[in-house]
Design a protein that fits this description.
single chain, 1174 residues, alpha+beta, nine-stranded mixed sheet, eight-stranded parallel sheet, globular
Amino acid sequence: MMKRFISMMIIVFIISTMFTSISFADNPAISTETAGGGMAAGKPKWVGNIWYSGTEPDYFSDYWNQLTPENASKWASCEAQQGVYNFSAAKAMYDYTRSKGIPFKFHTLVWGSQYPRWMDNLSPEDQKIKVESWIKNAGLNFPDAEYVDVVNEPMPGHAPPRWRTAIGGDIDLYGTGWDWVVWSFEKAREYFPNSKLFINDYNILSGYTNLDTYINVINILKERGLIDGIGCQGHGLENTSAADVKARLDRLAATGLPIHISEFDLNIADDTAQKNKMQELFPVFYEHPAVEGITLWGYLQGHTWIANSYLIRSDGTERPALVWLKEYLASIPPVETPSVTGVTLNKSTLSLTVGASEQLVATVEPTDAANKEVIWESDNTGVATVDATGKVTAIAAGTATIMVTTVDGGKTATCTVTVSALGNPYTRNEAEAYDQQSGVQKETCSEGGQNIGYIENGDWIRFNNMDFGTGAASFEARVSSQGSGGNIEIRLDSLTGPVIGNCTVPVTGGWQTWTTVSCPVSGATGVHDLYLKFTGGSGYLFNINWWQFNPAGPGVYLNRTSVLLRAGETDTLTATVYPLDEPDKTVIFSSNNPQISVPSGAVYDPETGATSVTINALAKGTATITAATKDGKTATCTVTVIPANELIVNGGFENGINPWIGNDSATISLSNQDPYSGSNCLFTTGRTTTGGGPRQNLIFEVIPGHTYQVSAKVKYVGDAYPASKQFNFCITCDTERSDYWSSIRIMASANITKGTWGTISGTYQIAADEKISNPYIFIETVYASSPSATEDLMDFYVDDISLVDITAPPYVAVEGVTLDADTLNLKEGESRQLVATVVPENATNKNVIWESDNTGVATVDSTGKVTAVAAGTATIMVTTVDGSKTAACTVTVTPEAEVPTAALTASGSVQPGATFTAGISLDNLSSGVYAEDILLSYDADVFEYVGTTGANDNIKVLREDASAPGTVRLIAANIGGVSGASTPVLNVSFKVKAGVENTTGSIAVTSAKLGVPDGSIIEAGLSSKVITIGGGTPGVDKSQLITAINNAQTLYDNAEVGTEPGQYPQAARDALKAAIDAAKAVRDDSSATQSQVDSAVTALNNAVNIFKAAVVEEAKPDINDDGIIDVADLGFVAYYYGKECTGTEWQIAKAADMNGDGKIGIEDLAYVAIRIED
């Protein structure tokens, strides 16, 4: 027993000594002590795994303390549709690591596989822009990812991207032979400044073929300070010895960089054999001093990249390899770490614009402290907030102090954050107010202020964070030139960024001889840095004083004109009304296909001025979504929905050729000659190989192990061709292989008879170990090495091509649904998010439908967001699509409390020298007010203050301070208190100063403090009044005109626009407004004659009469006036069904327009039908 004890002590000592030189990854966001749970928690190295979806897999936190997304952070998953980023699944994983305190690796940025297929159709210039945009957006969304796989599988014969020449090629930038890799790392360093950058590849540890080349690339990057670590995939090591693996790790370690075993798995079906190999290899990884951590690539049966690499069976039991791994890691001594001595931040000051975010990084000292947990706080959350990871978000202009405090020891560090508003490109911007420039100088401008000058070819200026909202239409600038003139290139985000416009600057004849130039622009939406780059000949070109953009408009504009969805998916469409100051921005969305719907509850965002709606793709088809304003302006978006599991886009060619291309140089064209279905089919000509035919690069993911249903219609004609021919439906699985043709798989075949449409159909299962990289499908004739023009290379037609994933997941029925609230109490205008929980959690179809039984009281959108509209009650119901399970919430809406206001009243016009009274009343008082302290301001050049009295005997004026011209302070007490909707409290007398006439003056309440019984003060709302001083034309009586204007204004203010009885058409209301404005112009014209005043009264009264006559009257279903509503009246409506107000028969047909909407429709028929008398 003693001998065994001594042996165990020696083993522990040896292991402890072995790991004394090992330190945890030097990243301040993660510490050993806080590295989540799992088998390696508290150990010197992490052992991680993947998530295969955006939801935490079973048992993950029990075993692993590092996370890499399997597919969710690959480019094709995040930007399947060009310009539309979706990081939701990857963000769920990232947020999980932040909450658990474990490292996150972003996998991957630049890779020749699983990139979006639309890249293949771009020019090299646009490809480069898109790659940089992808890296930038990834960096913005994952700012403190511990690790980033920048380039994946770049080795020859592996998966370098086919578009690598667009980003530097081999020697086009620096002559390194790997310039595209260097460029990728440069961009990653720029946009991931807080992350450690890794290269990653396979077969590095299983052979020497690429090892020297890999080390060469690593050293090229290391010399430039661009790489922080080496990734070695652990696939395919089943037949590699531990000695060989260690030898290759030693070669890589000689670079001086840390190593990650990035994708380790053992594809061994036999439990014992898998365990033995794990025992052989894993200690080599973990005990190597250069290895920082190991990521296994899957662990749950049915959710691993290759079938037999799983470690946990589907019943939850562990395979022996995992049992051993747990025991091995348990034997590793924990890292002993000291207490915290201090903390520092990577920045002591931070400048942000409203809405922007930036990651602060706290470094706890010493680096091996036991508890490196910190708490983040902001002293002014109205200006800037900070989350639990140190991410600072700018809320409003101002300053705030962000403080980080260590849990151990209470050590602190601070950062002062200054927030400025976003730049507005739609106002005049002075050119000299740039944020950065090259080559220009400031000088005094003849139009006031300064301008920039001494501009030469290639000079530029930059303006940061300009908010273009949903779109700019044109650009204009104030320019001058005594030189040769030139051009203003308008670019976004960089000097090589996209050009959105070009503005020509002419010679004006002088350096201070100014003119305004303009040009159209396109592509400017959202927030961007703006670059104005100046080009031209030699010498000084021109000067610029100011510039501005003009928004698109007037009209309604959508953020997209086309959308592609699968059945069951949703997307958001956003509409913006221009001009931006349009008073009524109401947008109504509609769809011409109920299976591709938009709900009635569109959401308006007052901050952006945009209205958003959710598109619900319920079934296959196409729809036109129309966004319409109340005044008839419209914009449309075409939505195409393919079946939920369909991989082919536009397989029926009803939307043209896109995205089809010709394979093997074949020529394809759209044809309407005898299509199998619909209006079009596709015609293939110019074939030089049997593989020549229609091809589509697959946007949606092809999954190894899945089964697919394929179908295509094929036809060929021509006397020279054989009577029948075999056609194949093929998929090329791995296009990055040098011998890509060896990955072509025939999914289905058929012998097609000449002259008639034939069908290729069948099912095909992709092999579980098939490598999928940039796959595409194509239609071909059976292979021939030396094809005959007549026997093999015939022209042919195709139609209705389909590729459907029919791998069915196990169906789990919905059992119920609950809401997080049974009742809601809201005030008018308030919103609250309801959350529906569908059970069981793993139900197959968890879609729900939201409804309100009283949309006049409360609406609910497709996400469950409830908005209070008016006082009353409504029931919000959520219903599951599967099983129609329901839950309800009762919403009670109360009126929004009106704000107490100090309202000022006075005559709109007075005569020269007159004394007049301005009354002050307190409005909207729900409880008693016993005192007021009111400050008035007035135009001292126009009026003299005379004095103030209480509105009644109970109002006592206690103090009048008029010592400063133009202001008077009044303090009064209300004996017994005042309350109610409107209560007069003070009468303030003013006199028009001698000699003042034919002008206007203003009086305003600039401060109003109200005293109430509980000792508090109410800040009341303010008001003002503009008064016209007469004169100039004696003897003109405007009293009737003033009365007419007041009466007309009251009528206008109370009139409702609509088509219901008692409402008015918008055009009639607009006409009355114009008449009122014309009358006011005469009222305010001091030189108006009595004749002009009388004419204005007559014109306004006539406009009032016309307006009153335009009121929508109760519909009259007794059309023939025979005293009875019967089938004769219904027949009249039916006869004119479909007629509209633009038609020649409308004078007669309009009698059938029951709802006054300008057309005869089903609503009018129904209105008469239900009123037919028995």
